[in-house]
Amino acid sequence: MFRTRVLLLTILLTIAVASCQVKAGLYDTYPDFSFLILSTPIVRLGDLKTDPLDPTHEYFETTNALSVLFYTQSSKWEVVMSGSDFQSGSESIPLRQMEWKKEGANYKKMSSPGKNTVLAKAQGEGNLFYMLNLSFRLVLEGVEIPGRYGNTMVISMIFP
Amino acid sequence: MSRRLLSYALLLPLMLLILSYPTSTADFEMEFFIPERVEIGLSTEFVDLGLPQGAYPGYFEKQNAVRVDFRCNILADWEVRIYASDFYDGAKTIPISRLQWKTESSAYRGMSPAGGYEILARRRDYPPKKAGFRYSKSISYRLELRGDESGGTYSAPVTYTLFVP
Fold first, then answer.
1. What residues contact residue A100 under an 8 Å CB cut-off, 6+ apart?
2. What gap in Å lies between CA A105 and CA A118, rounded to an integer?
3. By CA distance, what is A150's nearest residue in B?
4. Predicted confidence band at A65 (pLDDT cuts at 50, 70, 90)?
5. What ipTM was assigned to the predicted interfaces of this complex?
6. Chain A hits for B133, Cβ within 8 Å
7. What is residue A153's predicted lDDT score, i.e. its pLDDT?
8. Residues 88 to 107 of A: which have CB under 8 A from any B CB?
9. CA-CA distance, A113 to B61, in Å (whole number)?
10. Does any CB of chain A come closer than 8 Å to the CB of residue B153?
11. Burial readout B36-74 (b: 16 or more C-beta within 10 A, e: otherwise)
């Protein structure tokens, strides 16, 4: 009887844990109690802009569109971002066309799909709480097919 | 025995929980909208062919008289067409087919008669990956006189159309 109850408990607990095995959302937690939180689930790049000096230069830009708040006690950490190409039906725009920057810094190119772009990393003794304000820019090459494009970007903390 | 079983019962889910952490993510969606672009523009609204040149009956010519900027990023067989009507001065006319035109990279050719059209550019002339770019072409005009034209100040409307089927 006791064995049956234990078995039942095990099965129920396993199902409960397994059901939340893949978590995707605005926050990520880690075994050492580190965590990170994103400020928004959707970043919209807004209206297409044109460089007044060069009308052929078209781009999207949104400044401080995403805040990443994270906490860690670890002395070695990296916050990384990765994503896939932008898709609109069968059309796609390479992720490498997107640039990102931290507040007060210059734009940098995104890595290829599936590869991590390091947003920040430990620099000696630091705080426990950190905040990144990210801006994004996507420069068009002129060959893009019209449509509504989107992708999923992942931000996580790694401890090398 | 029972305690050991209970331990396993609690340990297994905990191990699963720990193993599940590396697959957890914080993610967000990125969105943007690229609008359709069907654009055409001319550098000028008026072209003066100037004074006749050469020996009688002479000819009019205006090099790079107008620049045509166009762009179409739609996946369709677009064309830039040139429509024109006969030159007129009151009741006097000169057929528009006597007007010749050319781009920087082509030789002069006659305009189609009124009601017809010439093709300045079309999608199939460009590599598929570059067909959505903005392009420019400079047009030169030449009108050779035959000597049978009545005197007067003639004008003709010339229309550039970006045609998308």
1. A81, A107, A108, A110, A117, A119, A134, A135, A136, A137
2. 14
3. B31
4. very high
5. 0.83
6. 142-143
7. 96
8. 88, 98
9. 55
10. no
11. ebbeeebeeeebebeeeeeeeeeebbeeebbebbbbbbb
How far is residue B105's CA from residue B99's CA, in Å, rounded to a whole number? 18
Percent of chain A with pLDDT over 90: 61
Second-level CATH architecture of A25-158: Sandwich (2.60)
**φ, ψ dihedrals at B114, nearest 5°:** -50, 135
Has residue B5 got a pLDDT over 80?
Answer: no
Q: Residue B81: which pLDDT band, with cuts at 50, 70 and 90? A: very high
- Residue A82: closest C-alpha in chain B: B27
> Is A14 within 8 Å of B30 when comparing Cβ atoms?
no
How far off is chain B from A17, nearest CA to CA, in Å? 6
| Segment B39-53, tens digit of pLDDT | 999 999 999 999 999
Question: Residue A76: which residues within 8 A CB-CB, separation 6 or more?
Answer: A122, A159, A160
**pLDDT at B22 exceeding the cut of 50:** no
- How many residues comprise chain A? 160
pLDDT band at B72; cut points 50, 70, 90:
very high
Closest Cα in chain A to B5: A6
Per-residue HEC secondary structure of chain B comes to CHHHHHHHHHHHHHHHHHHHHHHCEEEEEEEEEECCCEEEEECCCCCCCCCCECCCCCEEEEEEEEEEEEEECCCCCCEEEEEECCEEECCEEECHHHEEEECCCCCCEECCCCCCEEEEEEHHHCCHHHCCCEEEEEEEEEEECCCCCCCCCCECCEEEEEECC
The pLDDT > 70 percentage for chain A reads 84
**Domain B38-163, second-level architecture:** Sandwich (2.60)
**A160 C-beta neighbours (distance < 10 Å), count:** 8
Pairing state between β A108-109 and A35-38 = unpaired
Write down the domain spans for chain A. Answer: 25-158
